[in-house]
Amino acid sequence: MITVKRQQDQSSQKVVSTFLKRVKKSNSLARCRKTRYHVKDIPDLVQKLKAIRTADYRSKEELMKRIGKK
């Protein structure tokens, strides 16, 4: 996320131009436009593997909490 804080001696136009420069430099808008209509769906296998990893991580975290190590 790009943020710009206004200094006391800055005009509102200067703040806006600084923000626009940062947006352009970060290239986030160009990446967003590039992938706007060409987003691939996540395969079912990848979703399943991610769900398994998440469940495994949560069970380990619960175990660590129960035995008092975290």
Short key terms for the protein model shown above:
70 residues
Short description:
This protein has 70 residues and is mainly α.
Structure explained in plain terms:
The mean pLDDT is 91. The protein has one domain (12-67). It has helices at 12-26, 28-34, 44-67. The radius of gyration is 22 Å and the shape is flat. With 70 residues, it is an all-alpha fold.
Question: What's the SSE blueprint?
Answer:
Elements: H1 12-26, H2 28-34, H3 44-67
Instruction: Give the overall silhouette.
Output: flat
By DSSP, the count of extended strands is 0
Helix content: 55-70%
Largest β sheet strand count, sense and barrel closure: none
Low-confidence segments, given as residue ranges, are: none
Mean of all residue-level pLDDT scores: 91
